[in-house]
Fold this protein.
Amino acid sequence: MVIRRGVQRLLIQSGAALLPELCLPTGRRADLVALTRKGDIWIIEVKSSIEDFRVDRKWPEYRLFCDRFYFATH
């Protein structure tokens, strides 16, 4: 939660519009989706730990729905 709030503040300061926990057509849920001032769609996947990152196998599916894909962590 703390990680997501920090990322949200950073993106809002840069002028992006945000949608937290957006459901994608595949049924997956993106942690954060940002629409940038340029009109690009970014998906940000929040990871609470290295172990969380290592066991997550679903994130490659998100790349089909965005212009850029990022991970956020502490």
Q: What stands out?
A: The chain has a mean pLDDT of 93.
